[in-house]
Amino acid sequence: MKKIALSAIALLLLSACGQELNTPLEGKWQMQQVESDGQVTTVDTIYFNFQNTLFMYQIYSPKSDSFRSEYGFNNMPDNNSIVIELTDNPVPVASFLPYTDWTEATRHYSVEKVDRKQLILKADNKKYTFRKF
Predict the structure, then answer these.
(1) In the prediction, which pLDDT does 23 show?
(2) From what superkingdom does this record's organism come (predicted)?
(3) What is the Cα–Cα distance from 40 to 34, expressed in whole angstroms?
(4) Which of 6, 28, 34, 63 is paired with 121 by a 20 to 30 Å CA distance?
């Protein structure tokens, strides 16, 4: 019985240590809305995926029931900003950008809020609200 209890405690400690390595930004985020010039647009087909310094931008197409994706990197120089850079993977960035509101491969966001459930980013006079997916 003691071995089982000690094993359970060890597993809890290991999982707690692993959680400290992750930031609240880690994981998959589904965009819910974009606010620009007082206009709020509901969005549910765009996903931002963060894993350490890796990033994936996904766009879901309900018509074809498929995803369009582009990979890249993210960097948080501080708790209030994030820089995302898309790479030519799996397609050239130039062919992916027309499906987004980005004008170039690198985008700087200010982080208004990030917690376990919600992410709010701002860039180019737009406010992007995400939920943890």
Answers:
(1) 74
(2) Bacteria
(3) 6
(4) 63
Phi, psi of 37 (to 5 degrees): 50, 40
25 to each of 40, 59, 101, 108, how far by Cα in Å?
23, 19, 21, 15
Distance in angstroms between the alpha carbons of the first and the last residue of the chain: 38
Residues (pLDDT < 70) of the chain are: 1-22
The DSSP bridge pattern shows strands 66-78 and 106-114 to be: unpaired
pTM of the model: 0.82
- Whole-angstrom Cα Rg for the chain: 18
What phi, psi does 60 have (nearest 5°)?
Answer: -90, 135
Q: How many CA atoms lie within 13 A of 70 on its CB side?
A: 23
